[in-house]
Design a protein that fits this description.
two-stranded antiparallel sheet, single chain, 9 helices, mainly alpha, 2% strand
Length: 288
């Protein structure tokens, strides 16, 4: 992957290298600490309605995560929430990759005989809709933090290959804090970070990554009920499917994340984006 630049970008003053790395490390550590603290705050929420309690937890966890990313972007003079190049086109590409990737991963689990119908969720359409809105909020906050400021900050200092890879590893590390433990899950989450990172890098903004991340997650949880596995979460799902086959094909408590089929599908999606010959668009910096 080749780097690109412009006289306009070069003319804008950037923080010194030492200060930039200090901001990167400090903001990443602060976000990690907040994720761990938010878990304790979430456990302390004493609201009778499980739906309300979980919705509040989403706000407690992800709003500060996005704020940390935006604040770090201001310090590094990076426009964290960037529309990017040809936003409608890239949103469509991101959504298509998210939907196609999820369905392809599920199809591989189905071929292995591991997809069964669950007991259903029994919640109202309004609750399912709330879950969809919260998934958009979650994926948007994660993309703002990881691909809106962290990845551009890393790419500017170590180049696109190392920057996208490092951002993806941080993305996976944060999911360890959220409970991901299976080795295959960590590989697939890292690859997902690479996919979303390539979409952000190619498009010059966060919308393509948000579209791919949101569509994958919302179809997996709110439409097909694959998360958690087995069962459905408190926000319910349109259909309740469970993965009960071999662990390596999704029949694990971490579901499709722990499927080698998901790893294969993500690699297949990443390769064309990584080797696309056109140069990446310039990542716009905020004025000094």
């Amino acid at each position: 992957m080749a780097q690109s630049g412009s006289a306009e970008t070069a003319a804008r003053p950037s923080p010194s290298s030492g200060l930039a790395w200090a901001v990167i490390v400090a903001a990443t550590v602060a976000a990690w600490a907040w994720v761990k603290l938010a878990e304790k705050l979430g456990a302390a929420i004493s609201i009778e309605s499980e739906v309300t309690a979980n919705a509040l937890f989403y706000l407690i966890l992800f709003a500060p995560l996005a704020a940390i990313g935006i604040g770090a972007g201001v310090l590094l003079r990076i426009r964290t929430v960037r529309v990017g190049d040809a936003p409608s086109r890239w949103i469509g590409i991101g959504a298509a990759l998210g939907l196609g990737g999820l369905l392809a991963s599920l199809a591989l689990s189905w071929i292995q005989g591991g997809v069964v119908t669950g007991a259903g969720s029994g919640v109202s359409a309004a609750v399912i809709l709330l879950g969809i809105v919260l998934t958009l909020f979650q994926t948007g906050a994660e993309e703002v933090f990881f691909r809106g400021w962290l990845q551009p900050a890393l790419v500017e200092r170590v180049g696109p290959v190392a920057g996208i890879a490092a951002g993806a590893l941080c993305f996976a590390a944060f999911h360890v804090a959220g409970g991901a433990r299976a080795p295959v899950s960590l590989v697939s989450i890292t690859l997902a970070g690479v996919l979303f990172g390539l979409l952000a890098w190619r498009s010059g903004g966060v919308l393509a990554g948000i579209a791919a991340h949101f569509v994958w997650n919302v179809v997996e949880s709110s439409v097909l009920g694959l998360v958690p596995n087995p069962g459905v979460d408190v926000f319910g799902a349109v259909i309740d499917l469970d993965l009960m086959g071999a662990s390596l094909w999704g029949g694990h408590e971490e579901g499709l994340n722990a499927s080698i089929g998901t790893v294969a599908v993500l690699v297949a999606l990443i390769v064309p984006l990584a080797w696309r010959p056109q140069p990446a668009p310039v990542l716009e910096q905020a004025p000094a």
